[in-house]
Amino acid sequence: MIQFIALIIFLSPLAQAYTFNNNFESRFKDKNVSVSVDELTICPNAGLTVYELNELIQPAVDKFWNRVPTSNLRLKSGGFSIATTNINTGRLCAPTDTTCITTAGATVIAPVDEIIIACNSNALNFGGSNVIAVTIPNHFSGKNIAGAVILINESSTIFSTLSKADKIGVIAHEIGHAIGLGHTKDTSALMYYKTVDQRSALGSDDIRGVSYLYPMQVDGFGLLGGCATIQNNDENPGAKSPFWQMGASLAVMILLIELRKLLKRSQARAAA
Ligand SMILES: [Zn+2]
Q: Which whole-number Å values give the CA distances from 51 to 36, 46, 47, in the listed order?
């Protein structure tokens, strides 16, 4: 019976809130992904040298995304990458966002491989001086993400006002977008859109999200982390619920087995 209760808690639809970057649930094909700093970026308003920026990456992946036993994604700092065109001043446009690309013309940031972080002074990327950073996968291979750009808002000094722990939290949140996750309504999650104050670990919603996109294969048990419902970017709860339905029928089966055992036991007692 304990198994049954545990299963119900695990499959509770209230616990499912994570979203994706797009309807294809795009993710990196390779489970080993590097996060690098653009070698020519400069971050005076963000209050960082490029070396200090680089030092935030490894703790951001080790404290958050690399700690999920049900996910096989492993991120690492890739040091400095070759400078990407326009990354310091250009517009960051999704490959399908023709309005952004057309309006920006020649100033669109070139597509990247892996995940690249830079400071960017183009205020149009951020929509406000209180927006700390923005991330867009700007390179796809089919439906898979081939590369993503994380921009720290260099048109404002907001990043410089954060504690080191919160800077690491911001980088970790942005890496969450880079690997394919959207925002969640779960306030305890790193991927909650509003604040990253004092986040020192992933929330259970983040763990389910990354485990869904990058499930750990376990012999004999199939895909761990696959038992989760999903809520897409349109934020339409229950729009896709095959796993929940599967879970529900499994839970009913377990309940029936338990009931049969109880019935057998009482029959045996009655016979005695
Ligand atoms: Zn975000």
A: 11, 13, 12
